[in-house]
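Please, is this right?
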Amino acid sequence: MAKSRRDNKGHALRKGEFQRSQDGRYAYSYTDPLGQRRTIYASNLRDLRIKEDELTKNQLDGLDLYTAEKTTMNMLFDRYIKSKRNLRETTKTNYIYNLFVI
């Protein structure tokens, strides 16, 4: 049976979590929707897990906060159109026309 990874206080660490040896801060490493490796930090394990849960919730809700600065208007529009179900072709054409006229 594999041993679980633990911090210097004996707490079990989840996948992606680690404790930095330099300053004892906790970190969680993950891959964002654009494929970049990102890390969030916290001074204690409780705060790190709160940040992890918030990050997971935002990703499930479709809020990519860390990629927001790289999002273009075209990407937002494409995402909006894909979210529409049972959209008539004329309505979709009107959306596209109004996007370029404004």
Remarks:
- Residues 45-61 form the longest helix (17 residues).
- The mean pLDDT is 83.
- The CA atoms of residues 30 and 81 lie 28 Å apart.
- Residues 72-102 form one domain.
